[in-house]
């Protein structure tokens, strides 16, 4: 119904304008036949040219290959769109053209994505979903009708001039020029004001509703908000006074919030995939923190695993001026655990790992579930469990295996530790330099992990091997700290065991007098 009304009204407006122009040409022809014929030919050439450009021009931009990351995102967006509109076929192209100023545009059953536009992961889904909304509407396909009107073409040229030449004039000169430009712009735009722009504005709102429907309302909402607060005042002025085809950004945000049925706790929070992007209408840190916590608690009622885990981390770390509360943190982690959310299971296991009174069997089972589910952060802790016999029987072979898996997944502590183990055992076994024997001779509980907090408050984890009255440690940066730890125990000697010039690795042996000191008998 909307498309039919648009076509009928615009055809009538175009016929009226063409009739007026032909009447003027005939009037001129009666007084001056040569001038009249020239005017008629020029006008007919113009009409034919505009029809050709509007209807038959299939490629208007320089098409290039999509970056892989954007291509994967588009595939996901189109899949979501097809769930609701399986019969709609749309081609999407990545283009580069200096005249293309929008992030994306739908034309002739194609979506052109602007290669000169720096897309944020936050906005991209919403932008493409919006253009797919235009594709579903199809109103844009009939824009050629109003392009047959000279008034629309001249009005477009005024808009283009105002936008492209906005830096040519001083502010005072531009104000005077705007009065003249806007007068002629609005005169030329009379037909568009009456029969085109109301439909275009409604189509923008419809495209937003499609984006919301296929799951990208949050992304598009963030894009509009960012455009609203991040666009220079000059561009905002041009949009407000020259762009009648789009509703104002504030109007679109208001309509989207209504369509998305946002709670009061959500309206001032702009988020994508349950991650906060911006917070609006805050007068200070206290109000900001309160709005963030209200949003998290509201989302938690929806039983979203990521949100439950984030609330747990907030109380565990004392974020947003909350007191550190491990009990509250555990409550939220346990709620997420019931949804089999691995990061929360990991945090629960870590809390038990640091608590000597907790049930280590449950802790071991949690690390085992995580590791079997390929949650890589848990590998090194499962190795500790097997090595120390925490929650399970000591099994040095399994401890070594999980240390290797952690190192394969680029866990730096595991990589450093294995270097240390290999170098130490090879040094002591001068008669057999084969690394293959290391695993058989590996005794995990000779390892002590020492945590040091430096002057900046950063944690540093150092692996040391204690064997009898000797310490083996990795890299010179640990040496000064180790000397400090054992400053009350007279050092007999220290020497570099191995040195790898390629990655600057040093293994140092320190021999001390007393055997029964920190961590020596683990």
Present the secondary structure layout.
Layout: H1 2-31, H2 33-56, E1 62-64, H3 68-84, E2 91-96, E3 104-107, E4 110-114, H4 121-137, H5 144-147, H6 150-164, H7 171-188, H8 190-195, H9 197-213, H10 217-230, H11 233-242, H12 249-259, H13 264-267, E5 269-272, E6 275-279, H14 285-300, H15 305-317, H16 326-337, H17 342-353, H18 360-372, H19 379-388, H20 396-408, H21 412-428, H22 438-441, E7 447-453, E8 459-467, E9 470-474, H23 476-485, E10 491-500, E11 505-512
Parallel strand pairs: 2-4
Antiparallel strand pairs: 1-2, 3-4, 5-6, 7-8, 8-9, 9-11, 10-11
3D architecture notes:
The structure is a single chain. Helix 9 (197-213) crosses helix 12 and helix 10 (217-230) runs antiparallel to helix 12 (249-259). By secondary structure, the protein is of the alpha+beta class. It has a five-stranded antiparallel sheet with strand order 7-8-9-11-10, with helices on both faces. A four-stranded mixed sheet has the order 1-2-4-3, with helices on one face. Strands 5-6 form a two-stranded antiparallel ribbon. The chain is built from 23 helices and eleven strands.
């Amino acid at each position: 119904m909307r498309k039919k009304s648009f076509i009928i009204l615009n055809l009538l407006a175009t016929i009226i304008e063409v009739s007026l122009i032909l009447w003027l040409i005939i009037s001129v022809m009666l007084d001056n036949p040569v001038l009249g014929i020239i005017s008629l030919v020029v006008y007919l050439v113009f009409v034919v040219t505009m029809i050709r450009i509007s209807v038959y021009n299939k490629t208007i931009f320089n098409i290039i290959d999509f970056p892989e990351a954007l291509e994967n995102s588009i595939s996901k967006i189109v899949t979501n769109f097809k769930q609701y509109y399986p019969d709609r076929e749309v081609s999407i192209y990545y283009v580069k053209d200096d005249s293309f100023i929008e992030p994306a545009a739908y034309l002739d059953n194609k979506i052109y994505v602007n290669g000169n536009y720096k897309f944020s992961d936050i906005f991209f889904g919403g932008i493409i979903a919006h253009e797919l909304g235009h594709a579903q509407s199809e109103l844009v396909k009939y824009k050629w009708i109003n392009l047959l009107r000279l008034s629309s073409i001249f009005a477009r040229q005024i808009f283009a001039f105002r936008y492209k030449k906005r830096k040519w004039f001083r502010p005072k000169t531009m104000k005077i020029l705007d009065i003249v430009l806007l007068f002629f712009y609005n005169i030329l735009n009379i037909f568009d004001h009456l029969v085109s722009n109301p439909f275009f504005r409604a189509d923008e709102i419809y495209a937003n509703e499609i984006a919301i429907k296929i799951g990208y309302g949050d992304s598009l909402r963030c894009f509009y908000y960012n455009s609203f607060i991040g666009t220079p005042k000059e561009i905002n002025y041009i949009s407000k006074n020259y762009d009648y085809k789009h509703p104002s950004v504030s109007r679109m945000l208001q309509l989207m919030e209504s369509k998305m049925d946002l709670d009061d706790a959500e309206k001032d929070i702009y988020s994508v995939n349950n991650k906060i992007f911006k917070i609006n209408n805050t007068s200070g840190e206290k109000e900001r923190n309160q709005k963030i916590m209200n949003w998290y608690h509201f989302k938690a009622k929806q039983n979203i695993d990521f949100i439950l885990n984030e609330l747990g981390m907030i109380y565990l770390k004392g974020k947003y001026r909350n007191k550190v509360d491990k009990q509250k943190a555990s409550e939220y982690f346990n709620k997420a655990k019931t949804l089999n959310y691995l990061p929360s299971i990991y945090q629960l296991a870590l809390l038990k790992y640091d608590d000597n009174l907790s049930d280590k069997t449950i802790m071991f089972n949690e690390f085992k579930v995580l590791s079997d589910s390929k949650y890589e952060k848990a590998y090194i802790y499962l190795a500790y469990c097997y090595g120390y016999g925490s929650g399970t029987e000591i099994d040095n072979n399994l401890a070594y295996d999980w240390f290797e898996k952690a190192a394969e997944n680029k866990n730096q502590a595991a990589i450093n530790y294995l270097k240390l183990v290999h170098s130490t055992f090879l040094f002591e076994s001068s008669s057999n330099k084969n690394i293959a024997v290391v695993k058989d001779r590996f005794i995990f509980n000779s390892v002590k992990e020492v945590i040091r907090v430096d002057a900046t408050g950063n944690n540093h984890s150092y692996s040391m091997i204690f064997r009898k009255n000797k310490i083996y440690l990795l890299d010179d940066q640990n040496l000064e700290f180790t000397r400090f730890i054992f400053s009350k125990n007279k050092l007999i000697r220290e020497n570099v065991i191995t040195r790898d010039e390629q990655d600057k690795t040093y293994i140092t042996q320190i021999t001390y007098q007393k055997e029964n000191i920190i961590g020596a008998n683990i």
